[in-house]
Write a structure and sequence with these properties.
Layout lengths: L1 E4 H6 L1 H9 L4 E5 L2 E6 L13 H10 L6 H7 L7
Length: 81
């Protein structure tokens, strides 16, 4: 079993996911102490996909985010070229 710091895991995330796909578990550490793990899913593990409504709820929690349409409408209508 491998161990990575949080920073190391961030820098090597694709490789850690590939290792998990291959059956390997990786322990993540913060200041040398184990805090999390990246592990392969086991048969029977239930993983619920995010539904569109849940995604919309998450977006509405961030009132500072603009939709593409809002951003587009905020652009100046006349451009001085």
């Amino acid at each position: 079993m491998k161990s990575f710091s949080i920073r190391g895991a961030k820098d090597n995330f694709p490789a850690l996911v590939k290792a998990a796909q291959g059956g390997e578990t990786t322990i993540l550490t913060k200041r040398g102490k184990p805090v999390a793990k990246i592990a392969p899913l086991q048969e029977g593990d239930k993983v619920a996909p995010l539904q569109a409504a849940e995604l919309q709820d998450k977006r509405s929690e961030r009132s500072d985010l603009l939709t593409f349409e809002q951003w587009l409408l905020s652009l100046p209508h006349k451009l001085d070229l």
